[in-house]
Amino acid sequence: VWSTQFPTKMEWGFCKIVEDPENSYKEYISQAPVLFVGAKGAEASEKTLEVLKAFNSDKAIGDLYAGSHAIPYTDKITQAVTEKPSVKNWEEVADISNALAYPAVPTGQIKIEGEDLRGVVLQILSGVVSAEKGFTELDEKMNASLKKMVEQGFEIEPYIHPDLDTSVK
User: Fold this and answer.
1) Last residue of a domain, which of 101, 118, 135?
2) How far apart are CA 64 and CA 62, in angstroms?
3) 72: nearest Cα among 48, 88, 55, 87
4) pLDDT tens for each residue of 10-42
């Protein structure tokens, strides 16, 4: 779109994202694409899963990157692609060397009484409760609820990622 739909008569590019460790609100956040499966897909779940695997394979994502159609979720894919993207400045657009694809968390499935994370943050920001008290109470409630869920059969293993590194590179 940057070079075909709105062609320019000047040289242009993208600047690096401002990194400011003192102000985390400036951190770059990107929404990951989501593929949906219709009800018919459930009738042939094994075949549907194979299609989803193919669409989400490193090869498919790398091909989309090389064609300047998608930004991969990890820079390991961009580094492995031998063909340069076809759209001008796409490499700069797709520079995710300092990005993190965060795995799913069961937060929405954890039911607690009282304020959720958003509510606690709003209470802290409005001075109703201290950050220490608000987060400590929320942490205790969420951990108790999660423990109860696991005792009742909730599978926590898919959410555990011991090698996850969330530090800024």
Assistant:
1) 101
2) 5
3) 55
4) 776 666 666 666 665 555 555 455 566 777 777
